Known about the structure:
The protein is an alpha+beta fold.
Amino acid sequence: xxxxxxxxxxxxxxxxARVLDREEVEGKPAVALDRSAFYPxxxxxxxxxxxxxxxxxxxxxxxxxxxxxxxxxxxLSLPAxxxxxxxxxWPRRFDHMQxxxxxxxxxxxxxxxxxxxxxxxxxxxxxxxxxxxxTGLSAAQVDxxxxxANAVVAENRPVTARFVSDEEAERMPLRRPPKTEGPIRVVQxxxxxxxxxxxxxxxxxxxxxxxxxxxxxxxxxxxxxxFLCGGRALADYGRKHRLVQALSDRFSTGENDLLSxxxxxxxxxxxxxxxLREAEQARAxxxxxxxxxxxxxRNGLRLxxxxxxxxxxxxxxxxxxxxxxxxxxxxxxxxxxxDGRSQLTFAASPGVPADMGALLRAVVTPLGGRGGGRAExxxxxxxxxxxxxxxxxxxxxxxxx
Length: 401
């Protein structure tokens, strides 16, 4: 078995070891060592990375026989029995120690503040999450749990880890029952939390740094809490502070007045959008009246056929709606975008004896296009811009124009 140096000293950054075996693991060369400071991952904490004899270690993992395999970016040109020096990626490891210890503290805090137990934990590259076994947490409960967690951090309580027997573990107030039998490794936050855990942790709660909940969301019968600890929390605060300062400068207002400034801007935008919609509708109605007056008439129907390249698809749709409001009118409109995409819109006034949905399908399907709709309205498209005119010509012919 590989001797776990990270259990002896989670702050060990470099170590020497002997190569036990070499093989390929999931397409990457890998070596097993007699001792290692690389944490192989587990319990929600990712595995360590670093270097081994100068070669990049992309992942450490444990097999079923107690060996830690170190997957490498390239083969290690050393035979079994050779001595090697390993070095873990310390900034990444310490970040994981902060997040994982912070999780223990926050999980225990949620039990005290909201009677909510942690059922899952995930330590990601940017955020850490815990899933709680209940929903309906109030903002006050979340704030209370966060405040309690940070109070424990400020008290600089010792964080210790040791292996205990099953009998001793049964006498401990473990937050969750252990998942394994035999010697159990218990991580204790002094007088606050006892957890069966194989991960790496800091020496004292003060090293965790600030704990900040950044998101709370319901996920089925559970609540997912996303949080940041230590360096991640400080980096997030710095990013958000710069964002607030930039917005404050942009609106020429103080930080406390930003929300009011945004609300005023939002109201102005909504008013402008409403005015723009009304203007576009008036323009479309006027244009529709002109097109209808100029359109050819047959059997009491007027046909408007147009292809637009200089306006948006939404503007063409608005024009089709305005034409639909004209008496006994059929509109065959097409929009062609700068990238060659197209959209056909067929519209008919109420009472017109023609099915626009069936008509559109009939003309675009032979061209490899798709579309459909109802009797008075249909939309679709064809694969190439050059097929738009043939599609409209076929529709016009089908209507007898």
